[in-house]
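Continuing the series of single-chain predictions for the mutant panel. This is the parent chain; the variants come on the following pages.
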Amino acid sequence: MKVTVMTGDEQIVTLDVDRDESVENLKALLEVETRVPLRQQQIHFNGKEMQNTEKLSAAGVQDGDLVMMFSTSERPSQDGLRVNPDGTAVNPQAFQQHARGDSQLMAQLLQNDPQLAQAILGDDTTELQNILRSRHQQRTELKRKQEEELALLYADPFDVEAQKKIEAAIRQKGIDENWEAALEHNPEAFARVVMLYVDMEVNGVPLKAFVDSGAQSTIISKSCAERCGLLRLLDQRFRGIAVGVGQSEILGRIHVAPIKIGNIFYPCSFTVLDAPNMEFLFGLDMLRKHQCMIDLKDNVLRVGGGEVSVPFLQEKDIPAHIRNEEKLSKLGSLSQATGESSRTREGTPNALQQTPPGAPAANPPQQGGDFEAKVTKLVELGFDRASVTQALKLFNGNEEQAAAFLFGG
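Parent structure:
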């Protein structure tokens, strides 16, 4: 592994050593590089002096870590370099001053850990302490995993529990490799997907219509129907309850009203929902009726077999309140998953229910050891724990969907 050593006179030395190398042998290599006698060297890691007999791995030194070397006449400032058991600096102001005065160290941090570098250059010591604590937790977790892997190597091959752990470790390794391959070859999968919206006019009122082929019915909210002057046509005989990820009241049905797509008018029917977080959803019933084609290559919605083409809106053209509604819908609304249970005047039941692909499940995820492992992995990517926990709950523990949501947030 490679270890970077910074001397008291700000000299940077990079050495290729074995992880089980002793500190004394490291000092011998440094004597050749720096001309500082071995007996006058003091090696510090995380603010603590390492003894000659210690091994680098036992002291927690990992590949790419930075250690400090001082001669006996260059004792480090105790306040500047000492750290607490949780990884935070004893004196954060002195820590900042010490790091800022080392141009080479700051250059390395800006390249390898820009978040920590910005915290050192900033004035918020609380943020600096939080980042230092987070880095310490990451190192501790990595060390714990390495110790577990080492213990499994020497486990009793006839121990059933040990074999289960080995099987889980192999499976997790495959998942991690798949994750890394996706980040390298398919990074767009982790970005937030902008939903499909087009400009329409409903009864002469301009709207941003959400095109959703996964919803069986075209849906309009009560407030939107009132704004479009259609509430007077509401047939309350079709009242009911919409059931999906949660539930919402169906106020009735508007049997026909004109919508304008491009320059052509089309007849459309609507189910009216009392759903404040959803305005207008162009569902599969009208997509079929008007022979619509969702052309993602040209990024247009073709209507009437191609007689009209309207472009899907870019993210900048979608109003902020609609983008917020999308997030609210993921937390349990019916804008993406609606169902209908209504009864006609004669009493004939008519049930309708659907859940589109990708909608979060109604049951909350189990927060066991596997859930905590997913939380830890996503926190290591730089997100705070509260946001990670919420995202995993939102997507029923699906790690990839939670990551995509966080990256796109």
